[in-house]
Amino acid sequence: AKVWVLKKHFQGFPKPSDFDLKKIELPSLQDGELLLESVFLSVDPYMRPYSQRDMKEGDVMIGTQVARIVESKNPAFAAGAFVVANSGWRSHFISDGKGLHLLPSSWPESLPKSLALGTVGMPGLTAYFGLFEVCKMKPGETVLVNAAAGAVGSVVGQLAKIGGCKVVGCAGSDDKVAYLKKIGFDEAFNYKTVTSLDEALSKASPDGYDCFFDNVGGEFSSIAINHMKKHGRIAVCGAISQYNDSVPQKGPYVQIPMIFKELRMEGFIVTSWNNRREEGQKALLKWVLEGKVKFHEQVTEGFENMPAAFIGMLRGENLGKAIVKV
Ligand code: NDP
């Protein structure tokens, strides 16, 4: 089996030399175990802060994959089936079956299995629970989302439309902005080229925003918070603008708008909704099949290109979900 390990803790932006590709021998299968082969692997922003907090140099990079069961000595899993596993950056691995999620046998042939890592997987569920449960979005409201053309953001915008809201998205390239308009965002702009973020936010919604789904944090958030309507709700989902900082950014100082606009701001982690995972996945799958939620994947070919796909995603090179196809 091939595995990618964290060779050196990242200093600032991750570099290819921070990773090491190793070969390991897998032991023979014991009763209750399965041999799995990764077919699609996910590269996600959380891997950057997680590696800093919870990994040692030499550890296998964490992550999720869609894997095919090559051989099974576990009666609950048949060879040939596909599962979503949380086994890190590994080409092959042995599992005892715990924590594996079988892809439903009804998974439509027309849909790529990689969607179980994106729109119908963890990022889609993040959008679903963040918007419906944390923001408590209601029909007729205005929703703002940043990193809007990414895995989570693109679903947030489309769910807001399904929920009868106006949605404003921002992203880091004109192509991404064009994509957002194509998939139904009411307003979209390129945050890298606007002369003033403040003015762009006012122009996109002169009355302000009821819900802000924040994927970015930092300076963007400190500006956006002043555009919230009274009793607005902010779902603090991610802070990708800060993950690569060696020195913590100053601020934002949120107290004044929080008080005078009587805002509610709540951080959340998608896995806290694991007990409702099935409900969320069912709804997302239905909307995808009905064409109400469209998806795009940025597919990098080759297990050996995992670090490049990860670094590219952090740099904003992905439209939709960043996936590696083995
Ligand atoms: P994306 O597919 O959105 O990829 C990351 C995107 O972030 C890039 O494409 C880039 O798009 C944008 N970006 C990178 N650097 C910056 C920056 N400095 N300022 C603004 N935008 C930047 O990733 P995901 O959809 O998987 O994740 C989005 C966010 O959601 C992340 O912060 C992630 O950590 C968080 N998250 C949180 C979860 C939770 O449970 N709380 C679960 C899943 C994700 P652009 O070109 O637009 O700059």
UniProtKB/TrEMBL annotation:
It is found in: Cytoplasm. The keyword tRNA processing does not apply. It is an enzyme of class 1 (oxidoreductase). GO terms for cellular component: cytoplasm. Its EC number is 1.3.1.48, 1.3.1.74. One of its GO terms (biological process) is prostaglandin metabolic process. It catalyses: pentan-2-one + NADP(+) = (E)-pent-3-en-2-one + NADPH + H(+); nonan-2-one + NADP(+) = (3E)-nonen-2-one + NADPH + H(+); octanal + NADP(+) = (2E)-octenal + NADPH + H(+); an n-alkanal + NADP(+) = an alk-2-enal + NADPH + H(+). One of its GO terms (molecular function) is 15-oxoprostaglandin 13-reductase [NAD(P)+] activity. Residues 12-324 form the Enoyl reductase (ER) domain. Keywords: Acetylation, Cytoplasm, Fatty acid metabolism, Hydroxylation, Lipid metabolism, NADP, Oxidoreductase, Phosphoprotein, Prostaglandin metabolism. Belongs to the NADP-dependent oxidoreductase L4BD family. Monomer or homodimer. This is Prostaglandin reductase 1. It comes from Cairina moschata. The chain holds residues 235 to 560 of 560 of the full protein.
